Amino acid sequence: MEKTTPDNVDLLRAIVGTIPDIVIQTDLDGAIVFANEVALRFGGFVGIEDILGQSIFSFVTPSDREKAAINAQRMRNGPLGPVEYRMMFRPGAEFDFEVNGDVLRDGQRAPCGMVFVIRDVTERKRTARLLLENEARFRSYFELPLIGIAVTTPHKGWLQANDRLCDMLGYSRQELLRMTWAELTHPEDLASDNDRFDLMLAGDLDSYMIEKRFVRKDGRHLYTMLAVGCVRNPDRTVNYVVALLQDIGARKQMEDALRESEERFRRLAENAQDAIFRMSLVDGKYEYMSPAITTITGHLPADFYAQPMLIEKIIHPHWREFLAARLVDVRRGIVPPDYEFQIVHTSGEERWVNQRNFLVRDASGNPIAIEGLVTDISARKQAEIDMRDRLAELQEAVAHIKTLQGILPICSYCHRIRNDQEVWEQLEKYIGEHSDAQFSHGLCPQCLKEHFPDIK
């Protein structure tokens, strides 16, 4: 049986049929004489007849057409590629292609045609463009002077550090790259950071966030909010680590100042003679009651926390109606600046108190709480009573003094005085009734001589 050998052309075309790229053969002028199935599908051609005879340069966009023609001439001296062109196999659909080409030669090694392998690199270029854009965007973020950014190795060495981080730590970029972040960590914060970092290396965490102190080059402490994330290799090992450091020194100072202020207020409140309180209007419960309330009422602050309406039990019965009206006002957001009322101490003693109120509102203006002071004014009230009594006595005494100082109708002969009832009384009797004066009787020398001349 005679064995047949496939024609070389058929073999080559069979091989070309398996290539996923566009393969086109032309004559020396660029007219297409062959195109594989990939080319037909890409251009939307029904059959090979639709593309045969067309110039391959007609599929190159006008901006690249001259370059393509020049490169085709250079192919006579050797293979071409890879070269990128913008090509359009279908109207209005431009794509990026990578072209490799070479000249076909006949048996005498004379050029007889050209062959081109054309690969669609549109997606690859789009991906590369997006990658470049992302890199540029990351670089712009990286260089922003808003936050410290570092890229480190799994072994804690610095790979990259932006200018902001260098300023925060006080080191130059070259100095940082010769160190590890562990060397710059405050000793008291190193263990907690290491624990989380090890969990991330082990795959149990992909990121974490902690407050952490670094030690600057000048020895000062840098308080930061540290956010750490990692980029992993396909086998889940850590490729590199990205760290974001925000300087929270100013916030820490404010927190310390606030904490000191709160502690100072608490000391003042707990040692003040006035009771200081805060009551929520949301649920009607006391949020704070200072220890002075025990001296004033006999009840502990805990009693008010447990019984928000304890005030109804300790107020004097005569003032319960007054208190009920005030509670109605409070629920409507109407709080008098101050008022006085009586309470009954646990000892049974009746006491006077003055309550000063401050209405607290939220950002929208809605009342949310009352803060106030309660002062025991029993001593002041007793002093007022004593003063009123003394004033009444003084007014009575003054009234008597005014009576004696007024015009007194007196008889010029017998020296009797006419009283308020129009009755004439002896001078001694009238003065005795209207003053504390007392009389002793005797004779003056003139009367003694006139009426009793015999008495020597």
Describe the structure.
- The radius of gyration is 54 Å and the shape is rod-shaped.
- By secondary structure, it is α+β, with helices and mostly antiparallel strands.
- Helices cover 39% and strands 28% of the residues.
- Strands 2-1-5-4-3 form a five-stranded antiparallel beta sheet, sandwiched between helices.
- It contains 16 helices and 17 strands.
- Residues 1-6 have low confidence and may be disordered.
Short account of what is shown:
The chain has 456 residues and is of the alpha+beta class. It is 39% helix and 28% strand.
* Estimated share of beta-strand residues: 25-35%
CATH fold-level name of the largest domain: Beta-Lactamase
Over all CA atoms, what is the radius of gyration?
Answer: 54 Å
Under CATH at level 1, the class of the largest domain stands as Alpha Beta
Enumerate how many helices there are, as a single number: 16
What composes the largest sheet? 5 strands, antiparallel
User: Roughly how much helix do the residues carry, as a percent range?
Assistant: 25-40%
Shape: rod-shaped
Number of strands: 17
Q: How do the strands line up in the largest sheet?
A: 2-1-5-4-3
The low-confidence parts are 1-6
The CATH superfamily of the largest domain is: PAS domain
Q: Structurally, how many domains make up the residues?
A: 4
What CATH architecture label of the largest domain applies?
A: 2-Layer Sandwich
| Mean pLDDT over the residues | 86
